[in-house]
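Quick note —
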Amino acid sequence: MYRFFLDALAAIRLRFFNTAHYRYPLTVIMAILVTLSVLNTVAATPLLGTGTHVLFLWLIVTTLKWLLLSLVMRQFLSRPDKAQQNWSGYILMTEALMLPMILSFYWPQVFSVIGFFWQIWIWVVQFIGLKRISQVSGFKIAGAYLVYIVLALLCYMTVFVWFLQSGWLDMTIIQQNMEQLQNSINALPQ
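Predicted structure written out below.
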């Protein structure tokens, strides 16, 4: 876990290694995926409610996001003169840079704006790292992101519908929560 932490600090400073460097034990991978899932669960609580089923939903979605982005980048960033690179460790490490966002739940007035810019910085770090490590054009990476977004939306919708049809999520509760959130937003001073 210490090496993972050092790799994340290096990435924030735009220092990258080859993809073989970003290999982590299964325990670290699982710990990061579960922690990111808990973060997403907390963020979605006002909309989806609480419960083990919501955590399970986000565990599936977080894992799918990681796997899909890794596989799409593997396909798009491969060069004919080189073997395909395994991007899963690098993608996991850059996705883990979201973990400081937990601060926005404790101090939203301070960290909501900072968190917005932090999310943009994480994406920039991920993009620059993909470009430097793979040595392909930025347009190719942007195309890979577009393919990933389409595939991810399809997967997310499928999982969400599966949870709705299984009864693990209740659409009426989600609609009530959306109305409450909308009323809260409308009640804010202009």
